[in-house]
Amino acid sequence: MCYKYHVGIPEMLQTSLAGLTLRNPVIAAAGTCGYVDALADAIDLHEIGAITTKSITREPREGNAPWRIIPSNVGMLNAIGLANMGVARFVAEEAPKVRACGTTVIASVAGHTIDDYVAVASAIDLCGEFRAIELNVSCPNTSTGRHFGSDPATLRELLAAVRPAVTHGALFVKLAPDMADPVAMAECAIACGANALVLCNTMPAMAIDVHTREPRLSNRQGGLSGPAIHPIVVRIVHDVYARVARNANVPIIGVGGVFTWQDAAEFILAGASAVAMGTALYADPASPRRVVRGLEQWVREQQVQNISQLVGQISQ
Ligand SMILES: Cc1cc2nc3c(=O)[nH]c(=O)nc-3n(C[C@H](O)[C@H](O)[C@H](O)COP(=O)(O)O)c2cc1C
Questions:
Q1: Using CA positions, which residue lies closest to atom 22 of ligand 1?
Q2: Along the 316 residues of the chain, how does pLDDT read in single tens digits?
Q3: What are the DSSP E strand ranges found in the chain?
Q4: Does residue 281 belong to any structural domain of this protein?
Q5: Total domain count for the chain?
Q6: Which of 149, 199, 260, 295 has the CB geometry, 3.0–4.6 Å to 137, for a possible disulfide?
């Protein structure tokens, strides 16, 4: 356990995010670190700002058949298909681990229908262990995974039903990287009560085996993550921050291809208050530690007291 590090970590990385206080702005991304404490085998969870659970649905799901994760030379394609234990087991078996796990835990929620989202969000909210619920309306790997994130009208309908069910913590909304108008979607999420925006999920993508002529993922298509999507999401974070989130005072979590502290710092300068790391955990589950250390050094070099002073500070 890296005791020296989490005791000694200066307040310069402490991050305030929609009412949550994170010890640093580095979060493990949904679906890439299990439920609550799976990452603890690789890294002391005291070293990271938060973890996000894989998306939880009303019923247990097996997910898609293999192959459902394949490498690409620009990142990774996955079509896991929201495999998870279902909300009843999640609340019974995973929620009790939250208090002792050493970091803040954000619960990700997915569903096919509005009723599904409300049922899962209510059950998780009522158990009182999670500081935030993240609505996944941007999963490219199920038939309805992107439905509620596809346009402002459907998102509004969903949030009108879910918002009242989340009373114990903050409500985050996670959007896709290929929205026609990210600013309009962000505006809608904020107007409907989102306390933070998570930008973004994976990019719809495909790979084909040229020998068999078969799609390489059993689901035919999947989501691309990793370095290839990083500059795309930097632009989305930048535009959403500048045009809506800054004035609304709603924080952004930047997600997409964060492998190094420089990737994280880019997101911060574009307007993110925190970053999440997903694909990097597959290459090195302890990589968030390097990013935290690099950010700490960067904040010192930039001669500010706290990393929040660098949020959105790209030169004009
Ligand atoms: C294997 C895998 C599983 C994922 N599962 C989920 C999930 O359950 N819920 C969700 O909101 N995002 C999920 N994601 C998306 C990530 O949380 C993240 O938004 C995306 O991978 C981009 O970040 P990255 O480039 O750092 O991986 C998954 C990504 C991967 C690679």
A1: 256
A2: 333 444 445 699 999 999 999 999 999 999 999 999 999 999 999 999 999 999 999 999 999 999 999 999 999 999 999 999 999 999 999 999 999 999 999 999 999 999 999 999 999 999 999 999 999 999 999 999 999 999 999 999 999 999 999 999 999 999 999 999 999 999 999 999 999 999 999 999 999 999 999 999 999 999 999 999 999 999 999 999 999 999 999 999 999 999 999 999 999 999 999 999 999 999 999 999 999 999 999 999 999 999 999 999 999 9
A3: 15-17, 20-22, 26-28, 50-52, 69-72, 75-78, 104-109, 132-136, 170-175, 196-199, 203-206, 221-225, 252-255, 274-277
A4: yes
A5: 1
A6: 149
**Which string of DSSP letters, residue by residue, matches 152-211?**
HHHHHHHHHHHGGG--SSEEEEEE-TT-S-HHHHHHHHHHTT-SEEEE--PEEEE-B-TT
Q: Is residue 96 assigned to a domain?
A: yes
Residue 174 φ/ψ, nearest 5 degrees: -105, 120
Please provide the distance, in angstroms rounded to a whole number, between the alpha carbons at the two ends of the chain. 42
Per DSSP bridges, beta strands 15-17 and 20-22 are antiparallel
Q: Residue 46 sits in a domain of what CATH number?
A: 3.20.20.70
| Substitution candidate for ligand 1 out of 32, 136, 137, 277 with most atoms within 8 A of CB | 32
Kindly report the protein residue whose alpha carbon is nearest to atom 4 of ligand 1. 31
Q: What is the DSSP letter of 56?
A: B
Phi, psi values for residue 175, rounded to 5°:
-105, 170
d(CA 238, CA 81): 29
User: Which residue segment(s) compose the domain that 176 sits in?
Assistant: 3-308
Identify each DSSP E strand in 3-74 by its residue range.
Answer: 15-17, 20-22, 26-28, 50-52, 69-72
Q: Atom 23 (ligand 1): residue with closest C-alpha?
A: 256
Residues designated as active site: 139
Is 314 inside any structural domain?
A: no
Q: How far is the CA of 304 from the centre of ligand 1 (A)?
A: 32
Spatial contact of 195 and 17, defined as CB atoms under 8 Å apart: no
Q: Which two tokens stand for residue 71?
A: 């490498």
Q: Ligand 1 centre from 301 Cα, in Å? A: 31
